Amino acid sequence: xxxxxxxxxxxxxxxxxxxxxxxxxxxxxxxxxxxxxxxxxxxxxxxxxxxxxxxxxxxxxxxxxxxxxxxxxxxxxxxxxxxxxxxxxxxxxxxxxxxxxxxxxxxxxxxxxxxxxxxxxxxxxxxxxxxxxxxxxxxxxxxxxxxxxxxxxxxxxxxxxxxxxxxxxxxxxxxxxxx
Length: 179
Description:
The protein is of the alpha+beta class. It has one domain (4-169): Aminopeptidase. The protein has 5 helices and 7 strands, in the order H-H-E-E-H-E-H-E-H-E-E-E. It has helices spanning 4-16, 37-51, 81-84, 102-117, 132-139; strands at residues 57-66, 69-79, 86-93, 122-125, 148-152, 155-159, 164-167. It has a 5-stranded mixed beta sheet with strand order 1-2-3-4-7, with helices on both faces. A two-stranded antiparallel ribbon has the order 5-6. The longest helix has 16 residues, at 102-117. The radius of gyration is 16 Å and the shape is globular. 25% of the residues are buried.
């Protein structure tokens, strides 16, 4: 979980840019807010997640560091986890760290945590149909199994909306973590 100091760094990193301003890779267009509102929103979201954490509903946010530098965030959330065994995830990286395989490693670590550590049965992720980096990362390189129509900030089209998933039975441990 990010410390308040980490959150301040994450807010600055997000304000510096996560994606091309002409595009919106997220279902919730949180990066559209101008500074300092974007930073304020990021902080309030994290603090709200801490305050509202229960056994039935939780959002775990993880600060991602590379060589001691904060580069992004991986989030895992669940509603009724004890009943469903299902989590959903999201992540983002500062632009300077994209395209280097860091996101793939973040997802592998998150999947290992939820399957091996928490005993999850299913992990779901969302991505827009044209967010090729996320679709390849989340579905293992191919097209996502199934789709639904979603809209965000005037954008419509197929999104994976909970259909790109990995089950414990099909999850492979990252290199070096095999038993």
